[in-house]
Write a structure and sequence with these properties.
The complex is a heterodimer of chains A (323) and B (498). Chain A has a single domain, classed as ABC transporter involved in vitamin B12 uptake, BtuC (Orthogonal Bundle). Helices cover 76% and strands 2% of the residues of chain A. A two-stranded antiparallel ribbon of chain A has the order 1-2. In chain A, helix 2 packs parallel to helix 13, helix 5 packs antiparallel against helix 11 and helix 12 packs across helix 13. A 6-stranded mixed beta sheet of chain B has the order 6-7-8-3-9-10, with helices on both faces. A 6-stranded mixed beta sheet of chain B has the order 16-19-20-13-21-22, with helices on both faces. Chain B has a 4-stranded antiparallel beta sheet with strand order 2-1-4-5, covered by helices on one side. Chain B has 3 domains: 234 residues, Rossmann fold (3-Layer(aba) Sandwich), CATH 3.40.50.300; 169 residues, Rossmann fold (3-Layer(aba) Sandwich), CATH 3.40.50; 65 residues, no CATH class. The two termini of chain B are 41 Å apart. In chain B, helix 3 packs across helix 4 and helix 3 packs parallel to helix 5. Chain B contains 17 helices and 22 strands. The chains are: A mainly alpha (323), B alpha/beta (498). The interface between A and B is medium-sized, with 21 and 23 residues. Chain B: One of its GO terms (molecular function) is ATP binding. Chain B: InterPro entries: AAA+_ATPase, ABC_carbohydrate_import_ATPase, ABC_transporter-like_ATP-bd, ABC_transporter-like_CS, P-loop_NTPase.
Chain lengths: 323, 498
Amino acid sequence: MNLFAKLMRRSETAVFLIVVAIMIVIGAINPAFWQADNLFNLLRANVVIGIMALSVLIVMVSGGIDVSFPAFAAAAMYLTVLAMNAYGYEGVVLPFIGATLIGLICGLANAFFIHTFRMIPLIVTLGSASVVRGLLLGLVGTSIVNIDRMPPALIAFGRSSLDVGGAKLSVMVFVYLGLAVLVGLLLTRTMTGRSIFAYGDDAESAKRVGFNTRRTVYVAYGLAGALAGFAGLLHASMIWLANPRDFVGYELDVIAAVVLGGASIFGGRGSVLGTLLGVFLLVLIKNSLIIMRIDNTWQGVVIGCVIVIATALTAWRDRKTLA
Amino acid sequence: MAEPLIELRGVTKRFPGMKALDGVDFAIAPAEILCLAGENGSGKSTLIKIVSGVYDFDEGTLLIDGMPVAGLSPRAAIAAGIQVIYQDFSLFPSLTVAENLAMGRLLSEGRRFIAPAECRRLGTEALARLDVNIDLGARVGELSTADRQIVAIARALMSQTRLLIMDEPTTALTGREVDRLFALVREIRAKGIAVLFVSHKMREMLEISDRICVFRNGQKVEEGPTADFTEARITRAMTGQDLGHERYAWAGDASAEPRLRVQGLSVGELVRDVSLELRAGEIVGLSGLLGSGRTELALALFGMEPDYRGTILLDGKPLALASVPEAVEAGIAYVPEDRLSEGLFMSQSIARNVVASAIDRATRGPFLSDDAVTALAERTVTDMRIATTDVEKQVGKLSGGNQQRVIIGRWLLTGPRVLILNGPTVGVDVGSKAEIHRRIRELAVKDGLAVLMISDDVPELLHNCNRILLMHRGAIVDDLDPRDLQEDDIHTRLKTLR
């Protein structure tokens, strides 16, 4: 098979071509689209959804599904911001470590139930999401931390940007891409990463070959939680606001992006590159809907259709390779 | 016999309420191909699991190289050079061939990272050892079953393997692929590796093995050099009784209107201009290599290929088979190749499975009547001699043979006039197989059912059919009378069809 044919068979190529096509169309309608400012804004909008998508990608490759990450992100973000305010902490490194750890612990709890009781990931993560949100709102509080009370260090961090030809490119984009590279290396170059694929293919076989599948499950969900926690605090630092009710409805967007990127909901398939493209495509669609002044409620319809169509296409592809 | 590689002495394994193995002596020597024969539940799988360290046993001794070993674990068994290739191969479809091959080695070395170059090197070595050529960069999910099996074998031989256990390795292979597998197994033996082979197919056991061990009810009932065995002797040892071997003779009226007449049937490029006739009471065999179009032909007759061209007549009346309900309504029943994924609802009861195709026969008004369901199910259980005392038992808990009887019994409830069986006894043990054959013949003779039996199992066709059709590249190329034929004639004929 020559390189071109090989390239055309990859779902990443298809997503990439769709992205390019949409960009050309939007650019033709409104040439301002191609301005560096706009493109950089678009990239900035990828960051939080993108990191969450990486988290969902890991779980999906393992053959599971995670709908608890928005709740974990909200909890990690809100608790960390409250703690920073309570202690008047000035740095950002420790808070981000803290948020990541909160997410990690929540993720490990998911893994515990999924592995120990062989429970269905959807049910476990639905449950844990509800519990975490409930505890957060019930025990911790419901009031929004507004910009006036947000830790200045966090705001400064979220604002940091590079000057590229007069336009400002958020440093957060590099944080996102750095994480993507790390997750990519983990999935493709480490035994742990390959064990996640193997587990997603066939858990029983993975065990027989000698993988420690318990570890695989804990790593997959733990890491997913950690990424969600990190993304949560990053979100707050980028919008200068910490709302414990934030991220509601993110499940749909993020899972849509991951599926768009070619990951299979049956496990074993998916790539970081595909996920990055899927996220970009999703954000692009949402952005153009806003530019076209399409109502918020209708955006939901569009995203829902995108999920169903993308899932149908991947299912069709998977069936074809099976036959 | 040379010094045994692994030996069991008086090994007994108990499960609650039964003895899976009962005082079994067993040994296998280096460079020996040993076949385990036995029906489902005879103790074969238990023996494999004990030898590979999965099960512990209750009494007796296990010796490796003449040294007693206590509490063999799967890991220790692998370290001792014992490798098992399970029926599902335990490969990872989304990983590449190279990764699948290298994974075991990398794991045992406790690696944390994998380098593609190293995977490729290990993979190349592993395939070179078997002298086969498979694209190392391809995902295993894209390979054919036969190639997957080769990858599984190559992987099993990567470590210092001394005993290779293969559990029904030929089930999913075509005739030519089986030949290739056997050539490979002989090469493996030439390297001094022992091969323990489990198969349901007598012919294969006789062809490949040096020695045969027959198990029945947890005991080893016969053992000896393969040269001493015949199919009849193995069957007798496995079942404890002689099974009838007279061939099926059809005594119908050849001039009568055929039950099913197919004229110029084509399905895309897969079935080309096929014409055939099936008379009441006939059992017609249909064979051919995988991809010959035989399954597509059957699916067209069952309304699953609505785009077919040509005419199908049942008792002289033309049918338009655009969907399964139409085919069922017309009186055509189809028992699919893969009963697990296409035929049965594994987690449901026997009763529910039985009535699934004939729900209208078990209703009272708009509702399903439990009594009617139970009555129909109990009748089917008796008719088909399904081994159960409870029609509420989950189908998934029955043996393969009994599952097959459930699915055949289900179709009989629809009152079929034509029964199409695709691989009716794949993965079914000898006793059950004989029972299924008996029932099919009875249906043909007593009820005048016309049966089309698709099978790779040549003895099965010779034994049960009054005509055998061979398909190749979508066309029927031969219409044979089994009375004039021996097994080898058909195998030779099939081999010329490439």
